[in-house]
Amino acid sequence: MSEGMSAQGTMIRVSLDPNWPPVNPVGGPVEFEDIGELREITAPALTRNNIELTNHNNADDEYIVGIRRHGELTFNVNFVPRLGSHDHLTGLQKKWFDGTRDIYKLTYPDGTSWLFSGFVSNVGASAPVDDRLSADITIRPTGRHDWVVEDPAVTSDMNVVASGYGRGGPEVPATAGTVGGPGTMPRRQYSPVDE
Fold first, then answer.
1. Residue 89, exposed/middle/buried by CB under 10 A (0-12, 13-18, 19+)?
2. Domain span at residue 151?
3. Which of 16, 81, 125, 149 has the highest Cβ tally under 10 A?
């Protein structure tokens, strides 16, 4: 039987702490705010360039793999200009205007979350004559990302740790974000910023 699931309930959250330490963060919870009125979401593509090494001594082509590259996070919203997560005071428009680097968390319905650092690079509103007011949003990730599973009831290899690639040290079990209630996480567990 397939283990496929509905995408309904996928969420994007942004940290209220843009200064989350990049190395061995300690102390206090990191809080996240939901981005409201989400519709279609396209996660960043994970790619690597193929670097060709083929030379005149080769009978077959030869390649090595390039660095890890992350595409853009794009999503569409029912645009509500005065909504706190959309507006020019604290929301996406403000983040675009200021060029702030924040922590984003893309959470799938099974509790798996993808955390990464990024910038708002596009807020494109659309107001058709006979349709909803909407906006296309683009987040440009920078540096590495981490995977965690927040729901301890989920049984998956991803339940043991954030991926933390590029980060030294022992792996720390990923648990539910209980510090401060839902949507908050202990800082010490995650380190998605790579500076």
1. exposed
2. 11-189
3. 149
